[in-house]
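Exercise 7b. Backbone tokens:
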């Protein structure tokens, strides 16, 4: 064994980045790590900031994957869409795990900096709103918190003008020969999707004969996987908020836990859940 300390340079590792791109450069780490700016002097505000910033980064990746999956489904390219949707589910698994870290903060620790948040709230996350719009939960009232930012309104309005991910899935069912109502296929995509019996009948055919409809069977399960993780994320949000602030109003003015519990009742892909009762 050599008495000399190990150096990665001995194996050819690059050690001089004065004129080359480094890890820090590629990831823009200086900008990212300078973005945590607590407004007060309390210890736990850093946790709160990083929790929400990392969640926004994961949501950005989720949107990247969901938009690509939607485009692939539109073109009947199902294998890459399955990979992307599976990745979205794993992203929401990461988002779920993050609540465990935030739950280490006690009510008194949160109260020590809560006033510094003023009216800011996760309710105002435009990326979260965009995710809901992409999958089909299109509530126009949720545009209002972003009205002070014309650039964000443009992004959200552009999404509302496009068929949602689930709209593209239903169109794919129709192209495959399933009898989908014209009312669904020609609906106003700006509006929230509503349960339809013809879509549920199509999914029933898929589930009753998976070997004959394996592609759409797998597509259905990928969507159920995603909504399962998404529901868990919402549930974990509720329990974390209740654990930290009880039934106080949210900083953004919502009813807090009561508002979040109402969101648990929202179904993104209603027929995929209700068809299970018929099987």
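Sequence design result:
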């Amino acid at each position: 064994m050599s008495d000399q300390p190990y150096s990665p340079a001995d194996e050819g590792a690059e050690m001089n980045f004065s004129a080359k791109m480094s890890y820090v450069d590629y990831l823009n780490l200086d900008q990212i790590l300078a973005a945590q700016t607590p407004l007060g002097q309390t210890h736990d505000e850093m946790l709160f900031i990083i929790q929400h910033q990392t969640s926004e980064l994961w949501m950005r990746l989720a949107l990247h994957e969901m938009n690509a999956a939607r485009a692939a489904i539109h073109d009947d390219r199902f294998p890459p869409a399955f990979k992307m949707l599976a990745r979205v589910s794993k992203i929401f698994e990461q988002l779920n795990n993050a609540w465990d870290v935030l739950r280490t903060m006690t009510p008194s620790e949160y109260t020590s900096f809560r006033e510094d948040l003023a009216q800011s709230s996760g309710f105002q996350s435009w990326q979260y709103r965009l995710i809901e719009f992409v999958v089909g939960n299109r509530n126009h009232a949720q545009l209002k918190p972003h009205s002070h930012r014309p650039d964000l309104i443009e992004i959200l309005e552009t999404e509302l003008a496009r068929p949602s991910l689930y709209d593209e899935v239903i169109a794919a069912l129709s192209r495959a020969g399933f009898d989908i109502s014209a009312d669904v296929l020609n609906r106003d995509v700006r509006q929230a999707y509503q349960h339809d019996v013809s879509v549920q009948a199509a999914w029933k055919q898929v589930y009753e004969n998976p070997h004959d409809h394996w592609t759409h069977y797998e597509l259905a399960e990928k969507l159920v996987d995603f909504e399962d993780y998404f529901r868990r994320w919402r549930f974990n949000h509720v329990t974390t908020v209740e654990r930290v602030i009880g039934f106080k109003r949210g900083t953004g003015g919502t009813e807090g836990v009561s508002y979040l519990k109402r969101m648990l009742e929202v179904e993104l892909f209603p027929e995929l859940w209700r068809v299970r009762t018929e099987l």
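Instructor comment: The chain has one domain: 45-278. The domain at 45-278 is CATH 1.20.58.480 (Methane Monooxygenase Hydroxylase; Chain G, domain 1).
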